[in-house]
Structure formats: structure tokens, C-alpha cells
Amino acid sequence: MDPVLLKLALDARGFLPPQEGLALYEEAAARLPGGPALEVGTWCGKSAIYLGAAARAAGSVVFTVDHHRGSEENQPGWEYHDSSLVDPEAGRIDTLPFFRRTMTRAGLEEEVVAIIGRSAVVARHWRTPLSLLFIDGGHTDEHVAGDYEGFAPWIQPGGSLVFHDIFADPADGGQAPWRCYRRALDSGLWEQAQHVGSLHVLRRTDDGPTPRALP
Ligand code: SAH
Ligand code: MG
Predict the structure, then answer these.
(1) Helix, strand, coil proportions of the chain in percent (round to 5)?
(2) How does pLDDT run across 55-105, given as a tens digit for each residue?
(3) Virtual CA dihedral for 146, 149, 150, 156, nearest 10 degrees?
């Protein structure tokens, strides 16, 4: 990975540990020559630098979806709240300006395209085959299953489905992403490719049409 972008990714605010970020980059660099990628869960753009670096290397593009109001665990009084991200006028978290600064600094404004809104609303209108889907948005069953059902049908043959925050042991973290990941595996539609920390990569191996139905 470009050392300047790697340094910016390491320094960016966010939740992706270095080894997981590099694994995401490697996976994206291999897949993105085949088409665009989509990320659910932008936050301040840390993972978007890894994906954007791969998009640049591959001559491709990354769409990143977020309402920029933070997840449940980012709200005041919760474990991952950061009061410096609150917009005083709205009285709510707004990570959009931080994301934009991250992308400007990285020079990735051509490669990373922000979509600002709830993932369910965007998914309802999504019609583009994907080389890679990165699910790192809301961590409730409703959100993670909605992201899977909304966007994973659009992963094209040979494309990757990447989940973040997969914890087999409840002592390590919330179980909703794990349940969704198990559901994907049990469907037989994906093959396990690799995992680094809580980042798990599945691959679509069949040659059928896109979109396809998910059980
Ligand atoms: N990928 C980021 C971390 C994402 S944190 C990084 O590398 O640091 C999860 C993000 O998902 C938050 O920014 C939150 O606003 C967003 N999110 C949660 N539920 C969402 C939903 N239903 N629609 C859109 N974004 C959502
Ligand atoms: Mg995450």
C-alpha cells in the first residue's frame, strides 16, 4: 500500500486496527479491477482510505454509505461516544466534516464517493453489481441483516463479502454481525476466504446472474 496513504489511514480517527486495514486493502486491491466497491459505515473515513487506496491502484471507485449520525454505541452516554464529533447546531453527532477532511488530506476525492443516508434507503435503490461489499455499519440484528439483504445480492461472481466486528465469543463483542456472518456461511452461497482479527472475508464463487436471491 502507498506509504503516504497508509500513514494517513493509521492516523485517522476510527475503528479499524492496522492489520485488519491492511487485509481490507489487499482484498480490495485484488477485487476492484472487476468493478466498484461499496462500504456501509464510513464514520470518519479510516477504512475508506484503505479502500480508496485500492481503488486508486485498480482504477476503480468506492461508494461509502453513512447517515453520519453514529451508531447506537456512539450516542451520548454510550461506550464509544466522542463529544468532539457533535454538531452544536444539530445537537447530534456529525462525522461528515471529519470524513471530508480525511479524504481531502488523502487526495482520494475521486476514488471515494460518499452517499449520505440510511443504508436501508440507499439499498432500496441500489442497482449496481459490486466487486466487494464491506459491512461495517450498525451492529444490531436489524441493521446488519438489512445491510446484508440490501447489498449482498449485488456482489458479482468472484466478488467479496467482507464483514467487520465478527466475534464468535460474546465476551469479545456484540453477536449480531456474527449471526449474520453465520447465516451467510450456512447459505452455501459464499466460500470462506480469510480472516484477520474481526475482519472476515467471504467470496462468491458461482457463475450465476447478478443480482441473486439470498435465503
Ligand atoms: N468503517 C469505519 C467505522 C464505521 S462505524 C472505520 O473504519 O472507522 C459505524 C458507522 O455506521 C457509523 O458511522 C454510523 O453512523 C453508521 N451507521 C450505523 N447504522 C447505519 C445505518 N442504518 N445507515 C447508515 N449508516 C449507519
Ligand atoms: Mg467496525
Answers:
(1) 40, 20, 40
(2) 999 999 999 999 999 998 898 888 888 999 999 999 899 999 999 999 999
(3) 150
Which ligand 1 atom minimizes the distance to the CA of 21?
7
pTM assigned to the model: 0.98
Q: Could you give the CA distance from residue 169 to residue 171 in angstroms, rounded to a whole number?
A: 5
Do residues 63 and 115 make contact, with C-beta atoms less than 8 angstroms apart?
yes
Q: What is the pLDDT of residues 104-141, one digit of tens each?
A: 999 999 999 999 999 999 999 999 999 999 999 999 99
143 ligand 1 Cβ < 6 A: yes
3-state secondary structure 127-157: CCCEEEEEECCCCCHHHHHHHHHHHHHHEEE
pLDDT digits (tens, 9 = 90+) for 138-185: 999 999 999 999 999 999 999 999 999 999 999 999 999 999 999 999
Residues marked active site are found at: 139
Q: Which amino acid is at 6?
A: L
Residue with cell 447530534: 92
CA of 207 to the centre of ligand 2 (A): 30
Check pocket membership of 14 for ligand 1, CB cut-off 6 A.
yes
* Ligand 1 atom nearest to 68, measured from its CA: 15
Q: Is 85 in the pocket of ligand 1 (CB under 6 A)?
A: no
Residue whose CA is closest, atom 8 of ligand 1?
14
